[in-house]
């Protein structure tokens, strides 16, 4: 056996665990989902090949269109708000002279709270009749909104929940901001640049890769937004249950929190239409992949790199 072959086998042996994991936990499930998306399947019977029927069904599905609208709203609003909030918070923390470690810990702690527990707490805090938030607003003469019980305020309430748990993203941006060379700021100050000019010309271009990372991961996360929307709708409706029954309360109030993953779950586990559910999952995968590629290409074009 030649030395080149031995090196190749050695390299493959190190890569084998990762390759096996990718094949077993990604490629095989993806291939199975693609296959089942072309079938009529309910776990109890043999899959029946139906071709493109599941994909044609998407065009006439009113619940799907509603879930797409809600999910797009979350992507367009939720992702930028979290990124801007995390950048702003990290910039403020870098200016602290004392207690920086305490405040970093304080702002990061909410990110450690399980999403379900945080959502339940938020629903009760923002409860229209008895919640402490509306009680405080009434004390200062402001009539509080219905929050999770209002179609107009339900999604903004989820955004507030996301901002409360912004600590994970804040830590990433904090590390990026602290990594900007101080000499650049000193040179800009000597040239008479104000704080906004220093941020726009030095900080933002330097942390652009982190902004791109936050945008890509944020879009992927929001396209799969499930736990908080499911729990908020169920608790706010006052009819929270477990198992399959919870899906009957998804989207409360009036479908305003009914996201794409909630409809996918409902189709698969309430209606047992797993073939159609797999088609929905493949559609979500394709959209997430396309958005990621577009963001990456736009970032390269913006930075002047060759594609």
From TrEMBL:
Presence of the UniProt keyword Transport in the record: yes
Protein keywords: Cell membrane, Membrane, Sugar transport, Transmembrane, Transmembrane helix, Transport
GO biological process annotation, one example: transmembrane transport
Pfam families reported for this sequence: BPD_transp_1 (PF00528)
Family statement drawn from the similarity comment of this UniProt entry: Belongs to the binding-protein-dependent transport system permease family.
Highest taxon of the lineage: Bacteria
Protein name: Multiple sugar transport system permease protein
């Amino acid at each position: 056996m030649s030395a080149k072959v031995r090196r190749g086998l050695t390299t493959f042996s190190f890569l084998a665990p990762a390759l096996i994991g990718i094949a077993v936990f990604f490629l095989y499930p993806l291939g199975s989902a693609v296959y089942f998306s072309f079938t009529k399947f309910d776990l109890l019977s043999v899959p029946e090949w139906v071709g493109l029927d599941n994909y044609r069904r998407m065009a006439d599905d009113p619940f799907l269109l509603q879930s797409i609208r809600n999910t797009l709203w979350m992507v367009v609003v939720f992702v930028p708000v979290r990124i801007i909030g995390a950048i702003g918070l990290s910039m403020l923390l870098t200016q602290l002279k004392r207690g920086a470690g305490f405040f970093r810990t304080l702002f990061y702690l909410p990110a450690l709270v399980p999403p379900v527990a945080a959502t339940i707490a938020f629903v009760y805090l923002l409860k229209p009749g008895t919640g402490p938030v509306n009680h405080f607003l009434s004390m200062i003469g402001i009539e509080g909104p219905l929050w999770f019980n209002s179609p107009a305020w339900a999604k903004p309430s989820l955004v507030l929940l996301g901002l409360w748990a912004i600590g994970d993203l804040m830590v990433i941006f904090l590390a990026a901001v602290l990594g900007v060379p101080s000499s650049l700021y000193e040179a800009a100050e000597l040239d008479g640049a104000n704080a906004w000019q220093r941020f726009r010309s030095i900080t933002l271009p330097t942390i652009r890769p982190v902004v791109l990372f936050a945008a890509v991961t944020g879009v992927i996360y929001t396209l799969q937004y499930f736990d908080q929307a499911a729990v908020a709708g169920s608790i706010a409706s006052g009819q929270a249950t477990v198992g399959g029954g919870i899906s009957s309360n998804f989207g409360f109030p009036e479908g305003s929190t009914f996201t794409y993953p909630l409809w996918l779950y409902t189709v698969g586990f309430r209606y047992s239409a797993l073939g159609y559910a797999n088609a929905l999952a493949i559609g979500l995968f394709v959209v997430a992949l396309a958005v990621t590629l577009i963001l990456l290409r736009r970032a390269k074009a913006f930075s002047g790199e060759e594609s």
